[in-house]
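BUG: 3D viewer hangs when loading the predicted structure for this chain

Environment: internal workstation, default settings.
Expected: structure renders.
Actual: progress bar stalls at 90%.

Input used:
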Amino acid sequence: MNYLEALSKRYSVKKFNSEIIPQETLQNILQSGKLAASSQGLQPYKILVVESEEMKKKLTPSFYNPSQISTCSHLIVIVSKKSINENYINGYFRHISKVRCVNIESLDPFKSSIHRHMNEKNSDEIFHWAEKQSYIVLANLMYAAAIENIDTCPMEGFRQDLIEEILDIDSETEKVTVTLALGYRSEEDSFQHMKKVRKPDDKLFKFI
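Structure tokens produced before the viewer hung:
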């Protein structure tokens, strides 16, 4: 299956069949999220992977449409940072220095650039920027899942307070941005037989 066929087959599954995704396949999908493009490489988010039936059961009441959560193999929760502090930036540059085997002082110009970027934004702008980075991760995960023949459903319809309480999220410093259910579509899900509806090319694309 090529990537256009995979994306054409993809739809937002309303009910999964509870079959568990093989660990190797899951890891491939997660690595695609890890490799997502990120502004200045800062990755201002973390990715929670809910796999235990107990935790999925706890989270189910948090969602306005709970059928996906109660039947999926795994639930991915992307949590965005609300601020980028000095400790986070310093840790980032220590990691660059280690991975690339370079002197950390040689990275000072890049570090200064990041500081300027952050200082130009207020807290709301920083969080909005972090959320946009999280959606790039979401797109990568969905694309990789389609290639792996794994079904998905991205979801924003949840009770913020409840899901963050259950997952022990520090709401002062971070926020659940979006979730992604992974698994295999149920034969009972009639949405899989509906034709995909998208704008025609002449309404969507403009060549300049």
